[in-house]
TrEMBL record:
Organism: Thermostaphylospora chromogena
Annotated family: Belongs to the zinc-containing alcohol dehydrogenase family.
InterPro entries membership: ADH-like_C, ADH-like_N, ADH_Zn_CS, ER, GroES-like_sf, NAD(P)-bd_dom_sf
Zinc listed as a keyword: yes
Annotated PANTHER family: NADP-DEPENDENT ISOPROPANOL DEHYDROGENASE, ZINC-TYPE ALCOHOL DEHYDROGENASE-LIKE
A Pfam short name: ADH_N
SMART domains: PKS_ER (SM00829)
Enoyl reductase (ER) domain mapped to chain residues: 10-343
Name of the protein described by the UniProt record: Alcohol dehydrogenase
Domain of life: Bacteria
Zinc recorded as keyword: yes
Cited PROSITE patterns: ADH_ZINC
Listed GO MF terms: oxidoreductase activity; zinc ion binding
Amino acid sequence: MKALVYEGPGRREWKEVPVPEITAPTDAIVRVDAVTICGTDLHILKGDVPAVEPGRILGHEAVGTVTEVGPAVGGLTAGDRVLVSCISACGRCRYCRTARYGQCLGGGGWILGHRVDGTQAEYLRVPFADTSTHHLPGGVSDESALMLADILPTSYEVGVLNGGVSPGDTVVVVGAGPIGLAAIGTARLFSPSTVVAVDLAQSRLDAAKRFGADVTIGAHADPAARVAELTGGLGADVAIEAVGVPETFELCTRLVRPGGRVANVGVHGAPATLHLEDLWIRDVTITTGLVDTYSTPTLLKMVTAGRLDAAPFITHRFGLHDMEKAYETFSRAAETGALKVVLTRE
């Protein structure tokens, strides 16, 4: 089969690799029907995630069809159509027992495309298959379901819920890429008074408007001054960091009001300065987090019922064997206008 293989910082290759096999009784083999590329994959390719070793198949989001299950798998059978979660869960450890699946101690957590081979392939092995996949109803398309593998639960849990977004809040989302847009869309579920998007690319600010941002702030504006103007000088109730660079994290700490909350969602590959000399007296809460995907069943219900539209995230479509072209398009998002690219089996 073919797969996208990480060959070290700055290097990747779509090449022939062995078809995966069942290695543990809780495994399943899934034929990949739809897959996407995440900003985290770009961080890996830049060398920001040193735990990913050369030779690893990348990717942690997929929709597919079960082809084989291990003897301990009880909830799946060959032919089932499933969403493969970006987080794997052993289902037994202390963290899994409290729905903190991202911190799984039993061999799960974020492992696909990280510590074990991932989803950007024709087939993949899914560890802990019963607790790491979701059956898909017939009325939900592969493309819409794919947005529930990572970006929607990540933005909702790590951004909106960790940030404690409440009715009437002013919410500022720094970074209007796919994660930021998902944060804008899911923040609106809690009826904030104003949602502000900050980004350097006009195409992404235009997308932020479509996803529900009330105000956009671009490259030539002063975000702190504009947010102060919108809030009577107070600052944002919640600032969501959705980029993963020091400058955007530090900007969020300047935009938030005393008593407000900064929710960091971005994947950081370099240290950021925490200005405690300014923050200690302002009662600011800062949260970080890896998605746990405990919200996926809820979000799937909303998509199924038509209460949450996942389709607008998708801007570009490719065949599975156009993986290199899809990466080129996604990695130049400021030029191409790419939000999420979807690759499907021909």
